[in-house]
Design goal:
Number of strands: 0
Helix content: 55-70%
Strand content: under 5%
CATH topology of the largest domain: Tetracycline Repressor, domain 2
Shape: elongated
CATH class of the largest domain: Mainly Alpha
CATH architecture of the largest domain: Orthogonal Bundle
Number of domains: 2
Length: 202
Amino acid sequence: MPPDFSEYRLPRGRHGIPPEQVRANQRWRLLGSCAEVLAERGYGALTLSAVIEAAAISKGTFYEHFEGLPECLLATYEMATANALAVTREACGPGSDPAAALPVAVESVLGLFAAEPALAHVLTDMALEDVPGLHAAREEFAHACASMLAAAGRGQVDPERHRRLSLHRVRATKGWLASRMRAGAATSLPRKAPELTQLLTV
């Protein structure tokens, strides 16, 4: 079952919490509940009422943040990609050898997905292609990942060919990850880091 986001509900009445903090809290709860409900029930069964119930937020408050469920879904996808990219960039810190950093980055991302499997579901659910704007966001994420992967292959004879090959590898990774999520293998993802690293480098 999705987590009970009611524990994050702000107190009623005059609580003295700055409005921007209130809005940030509400938005986080909506994105988190959208991801969890999507992972638990699938896109076909995802409804606005399920999201606001899981987030412990009123429908009126939802519409203060988003025009509708598609916009919330797109924001949820962008939140998932931002988390994945942040973990990857942290693993490939400044001054690190890009080639040596790749296994660390892969293990870090798979660790994130093992801890937060809903994020992996959001990133791999092909049904979300129907969400306006999501295809473009998915392409942007793929190209960002490919650029980081291509950086790990600096010194290639044909950098442009290597960049295109990196993009194909990133797209193949999505299929690899989706198959493991469908099999319910999220918790074992970190142990698969060597396998995925090889997929990204062969």
